[in-house]
Amino acid sequence: xxxxxxxxxxxxxxxxxxxxxxxxxxxxxxxxxxxxxxxxxxxxxxxxxxxxxxxxxxxxxxxxxxxxxxxxxxxxxxxxxxxxxxxxxxxxxxxxxxxxxxxxxxxxxxxxxxxxxxxxxxxxxxxxxxxxxxxxxxxxxxxxxxxxxxxxxxxxxxxxxxxxxxxxxxxxxxxxxxxxxxxxxxxxxxxxxxxxxxxxxxxxxxxxxxxxxxxxxxxxxxxxxxxxxxxxxxxxxxxxxxxxxxxxxxxxxxxxxxxxxxxxxxxxxxxxxxxxxxxxxxxxxxxxxxxxxxxxxxxxxxxxxxxxxxxxxxxxxxxxxxxxxxxxxxxxxxxxxxxxxxxxxxxxxxxxx
Length: 353
Fold this sequence. Notes:
The protein is mainly alpha-helical. The chain has helices at residues 2-11, 18-25, 36-58, 68-78, 111-132, 137-158, 165-179, 190-197, 199-211, 215-253, 261-272, 281-285, 289-295, 300-312, 345-352, and strands at residues 99-100, 103-104, 279-280, 316-320, 323-326. The strands form 2 sheets. Strands 3-5-4 form a 3-stranded antiparallel sheet. A two-stranded antiparallel ribbon has the order 1-2. Helix 4 (68-78) packs across helix 7 (165-179), helix 8 (190-197) crosses helix 10 (215-253) and helix 9 runs antiparallel to helix 10.
């Protein structure tokens, strides 16, 4: 959520880094007064996302409808406590013409009608998605994604507010995905990060949709990014699960060993070893300052006994050439790999042993 919130603000010019946002929201660091508006921008997006999450938890997917009132309320939240130009009223449509770069927004007098029509149209698509979900999750997801990205695009076209239109468009996109029941909450905000990573292409696709009526191009661009972001997220989650499984497995293997400093030292060594990186005994002995300290003043014979025990417990693997690597690869036997059906490459490696 923090990454997505920062990304949505960064597209509009916020210059905070991910590390700075982490420091602010996790470690409660305060920025200098002159930069606190940057924090407030990100905080507002985060708060709006939390509100959407709460709405999802309290309701059901078929309860959600996009309304001008809901959009205005979210826009007000996005601009809360920020200095804005005099012509900007948080939570209210603009009453003046607006030009962004070479793009001129819809006439101010048309905005209320256009927003009503947009909400009506998007709600129809979401209703179709709910009906489709009874028989086809794929069709339901397609329609939901269609509604989300169209909302994003048309908010950018109409430009209903004096400021904050991009943040509002991306928030609405996230909300539609979240309320669908088809996208896990953890994945609903991936598109904002993708748009920020590919910001130049993002603006090109928006521009082409406007000037060349290439709506399909914008949706295809968004869909491609969402797919790739989901794959990246799955890999990240699986890597974390793999690491947790490995830690549990290592502790389980040591259950039969006496709870001594020797066992703790050996456990620390194997858990510090990197994945798929063969190391010599010397490299392992000095892998981290903590491990080097554990072996400080000890004999090479003691270290070899530790290594032999880890080999016996099958927690490290002798890969030849007097090098060893972590046996974390054993955890891959429990990773779903549908592209291989019932076959897992790790089983072949185990069989060779």
